[in-house]
Amino acid sequence: MTLTVQPHRETLGLKDGRLLIGGEFREADETWTHHHPATGEEIGSFAVASVQDVDAAVRAARKAFDEGTWPRSRAGERIKVLRRYGDLLREHSDELRGLQALDNGVPLSFGQIYATSVGIAADIFDHHAGWIDKVGGQTLPPYQGGDHLAMTFREPVGVVAAILPWNAPFVLFAQKLAPALAAGCTVVVKPSEYASFCVIRMVELLIEAGLPEGVVNLVTGPGNPTGEALITHPGVDKISFTGSRTVGRRIVEASAGTMKRVSLELGGKSPAIVFSDAPNVGLAAMTCMGMVTMGLSGQACVAHTRALVQRDAQDEFISMAQMLATAVTFGDPFDPAVLASPLINGKQLERVLGYIERGQEEGARLVTGGTRLEGDYASGNFVAPTIFADASNDMAIARDEIFGPVLTIVPFDDEEEAVRIANDTEYGLGAGVYTNDVRRAFRVSKALRVGMVGVNGFQLEPHIPFGGYKQSGLGREGGQSAYEAYTELKTVMMPLTDEMM
Ligand code: NAD
Asked: At the top level of CATH, which class does the domain 19-267+473-488 belong to?
C-alpha cells in the first residue's frame, strides 16, 4: 500500500496561499510548491514574498503602528479581539490540525497533546489578553534632592517581525503574536516554508476576529529572499525568532545595524539526569524516549535527547526505552493510530542518518534503530527510533542538536559528575531531574545552567516562562516577562518644586 494524503486536501478545502499586506490578500510573482514529508506528494503552493513584497508588508505594519488605532486603543478593545480570536481558534481546531498534518506531517494524534495543540494556542491568547489591563508602569519615590514625581510607562515596542520554525506552529505563533498584539504592536509574520498552510489560516482568523487593517501582515517564503528581507529591513523594531542557532546568529548580526530588539528561542541538547533513586526509572526512560520519538520524532527543541543515567540504573532504563521504541507507529498522519512524524525534509533525513553513522564510528553502542524505514514508508522521510548507550559526552551525538529520533545515553556515577556532564554543553534550554530525594532535586536544579528544569516530569503551559540559557536563546516566552518583551519602558520625571532644578 502506498501512503497518500491527497484526499485530505479536498476535505480541508486547501487553497493556494497568498500574502497579506495592509489588509489585502495578494499573490506574488513566485510560488513555492510544498511536498509532503510522509509521502513526497505535491500538496499545494503558496506565494514567495520578494524583497519588494516584504518592504510593502513592513511599510503597512509601520503605518498601522505610527498612525493606526491599535497601538492607541483602549485595553478593553484589545482584550475583546484577543479573546474572540482564542474562541475562533478553538472552533477551528480540527481544521487547523488537519492543515498542519498536510504541512509538516505531524500526526493528528500529536496535535491533541496539550503542549502542541490549537487549544494551548487559544489559551496563550487568553493569557496575554489578561495582561493588557494589568501591566503598567511604576511611580518611584525621590532618591535625593527635592520633591519630584518619577513615573514609568510601558509602551508597545513597535513593528515586530515574527519568524517561526516548522515544528510547532500553533503554540509558537501564539507565543509571539499574543504578547505582541496584546502590547499594542503591529506584526509581520513569516511562517516556515515547511509549515505555511496552517499559519496562513491562523492569520485569516485573526482578521475575522477584528484586527484593524495592517496590524498583522503575512509574508510566506523561505529564508532567502523572504526572511533576509525581513530581518534586514530598517522599518522593523523587533525580531522575535524561533528556530536554529545558525539562523539565530544571523539575526543577531542583521539586527545590529538599526539596533533592533531581539528575542531568540533556539535549539538545545537537553539532559535528563536519572538517578537510581528515581521514583520510577522505567517511567523516566519512557518519558525521554517518548520525547525523542513520539509526535515530532525528536524534532523538538526541548526534548531530553541526552539521558545521563546513573550506572546501576542503566539496564532498567535501556530496556524500558527499547520497549517504547517498538511501540512507535508511523504512516498516514490522518490515521489516529499513527503516533510519530517523518523528518521534515530530505536534507534533515540525511543529516540524522549521518549522525547515526558518526555515533557508531565514535564507539557508542547502537541498541536499536539506526535505519531509514523502507517498504510502505520508503517515499517518506522516516527513521526508526534509535538508542545509543555507553556514549561519552564528547561524542557528536551527545553534543550536537540532531533533531531526529535519537536518544544518547551517557552513564554517570555520582551527583557531582552528573551535573558536570549536564552543564558541559553550549546549549541551556531544558533539563530533567529524576530522583526521590527532594533536597537533591533542588540542589541539582539550582546547579543546572538551563532555562527550564522538570523534576520527575515536565509540562508546557501558557503562563510558564519558556526559554534558554547560553546558546539556546535570548529572553523568555510565556508569562508577564514575555508580554513586557514587546514593550519599551519610558521614564517621565517632573519636579514639583524649584528645589531640584
Ligand atoms: P530554521 O532556523 O531553519 O528556520 C526557522 C525560520 O527561519 C524559518 O521560517 C526559516 O524560513 C527562517 N529563516 C531561515 N533563514 C533565514 C534568514 N537568513 N533570515 C531570516 N529567516 C530565516 O529552523 P527550523 O528547521 O524551522 O526549526 C528547527 C529549529 O528550531 C531547531 O533548532 C529547534 O531547536 C528550534 N526550535 C526552538 C524552539 C524553542 O522554543 N527554543 C521551538 C521550536 C524549534
From this structure: alpha beta
